[in-house]
């Protein structure tokens, strides 16, 4: 048994014994027990003014009892019981309010912790997405660089395959030579070859096997357009 409970029980027993020994007011024992309950509980701390008012009422009852005025004492004791009942209700209401406030605070703390955890998860997901996006961009850049490298390699290989000169074979014509992949890959550019070899060719319609023709590689856009225009206006069949 707790010390407070033992004290309360001992006081109650003493009051009961005292009441049996000598005549007393009818509500004295009850009022004394109510006052003792206030003392040993937390009521006095939470409601000091109300507790002091209760003690004062009991004291007035004791004073009247000492004077032998039992009726007045009982009236005071009865008032004290009413005040004790009100104080008890206030105490229980305050305990309930405090418990609700503590429960609300715990719930707010739980929600705050949950919100914080969700925020951490969002930030973690955002950071992971940033890492993935950076990796994706890096991968795309690497793919583009690889594509450019391959394109440049193909271009270089293609340029390396382009011949600077061509030895005429039997039956070949300028358009046939220009159409070959290692020359221009375009038959309409034959005038470029003809123009570069005018020193050894007078008639573009006549080529001799074994002739070595220079293949110009420094032609600009205007030269190419002019060659195509020339090829479209003149047919090699016009030459005997």
Judged by helices, strands and strand pairing, the structural class is mainly alpha
Give a quick account of the main beta sheet: strands, pairing sense, barrel closure.
2 strands, antiparallel
Poorly predicted regions: 17-22
Shape: rod-shaped
What does this entry look like structurally?
- With 240 residues, this protein is an all-alpha fold.
- It contains 8 helices and 2 strands.
- It has helices spanning 3-21, 28-40, 43-46, 48-66, 70-161, 174-179, 190-196, 221-233; strands spanning 165-167, 212-214.
- The chain has a two-stranded antiparallel ribbon.
- The relative contact order is 0.06.
Keywords:
mainly alpha, Membrane-bound Lytic Murein Transglycosylase D, Chain A, 8 helices, 72% helix, 2% strand
Write the layout of secondary structure elements.
Elements: H1 3-21, H2 28-40, H3 43-46, H4 48-66, H5 70-161, E1 165-167, H6 174-179, H7 190-196, E2 212-214, H8 221-233
Antiparallel strand pairs: 1-2
Helix pairs in contact: 1-2, 2-4, 2-5, 4-5
